[in-house]
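Input record (one chain):
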Amino acid sequence: MNDQRSQTQRHVVIAGAGMAGVQTAVALREQGFTGPVTLLGAEPHQPYDRPPLSKAVLLGKAEDSAFDVDFEDLGVTLRLGVEVTALRPADREVDTADGPVPYDVLVLATGAEPVTLPGGPVPGVHLLRTVDDAARLRPVLAGRHAVVVVGAGWIGAEFTTAARDAGCPVTVVEAAPRPLAAALPAAVTTPMAGWYEAAGARLLTGTRVAALEPGRVRLDDGTELPADAVVVGIGARPATGWLAGSGIERGADGSVTADARLHTSLPSVYAVGDCASFPSARYGERLLVHHWDNALQGPRTVAANILAETADRSPEAVYDPVPYFWSEQFGRFVQYAGHHTDEDTLLWRGDPAADTWSVCWLRDGVLVAVLAVGRPRDLAQGRKLIESGTAVDPAAAADPAVPLKSAAR
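The corresponding structure, as predicted from the sequence alone:
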């Protein structure tokens, strides 16, 4: 049964005040939604951007990374320090510690939460996910303390970069045989492993942590590493545990199972950003993308479909992006666009021993992904080719002297 109330009467509640939640509120107003919008943020701070946390904020070059958004001017009710704890779709309410919040349309934008090692809290062990985490780590870097980083993924590499820039002795412990093993093939990550040593960091691969103890890290082979501080960066998972019992469909990875319009299995409930997976017709599989650009782009689709729903039209906006992210590590600007699998053909553009190089992945002759290290033009041109589904000449695509756009067939 359709809700016949006008748009101005329908209340949109957004659970989560990170990039995805904030951009959903902004997109709703930009696209002409005039009804009430409430944004619920679990943290007490003004909503902020996360990428600067491992860079400017961590190094003390900036106090915060708050979004430049005037919520009052937008007519958005911002409620901070209000964590959602449950969803009751039959009553169209979300529960919080401050009491229930009713909604007509709900947007799930609760993001992801860091994976932690087993055991309880240990003094000196840190995560790097929030502005408070960055604030706690700033004295560590300022004091040039000895640091052990657990995990050689994207966040581990970025923190190691910042810690070495600050003059901290750093040891990185990675359970996999190489950095970024879950994201990139061995041929690509092998040269990246050398970046750690060149930066003065010690990298231990194929090594597991047995225990975290005050002042030290004990490895599974019995080795003990002294540590003034430990930073754990072993991944993140969708922050959706609070949805248990709501009846909403979730995947094995915990992500909310959204459709191509970012609508969930519940009426008038959408999901966007790190907490949601979506089907990609472009890649023929469901994607869960834990990156900034996804949290920026997805809200536009959600807003368009909410406007259609509140105008009693069928939501038609489809979300099928070319995923994109970047990382700054060890003096290099690393960018990736697209999505690849192990079955795709890998092409090198340039020498991986050099400071700048790229990698392309082809599927049936069509460019589906590109990784660029210090070659932003390759990324920009490759992203356009991926978006258009353009076939390329492999020989031209593998020649770093040939502009990637010129490899199009």
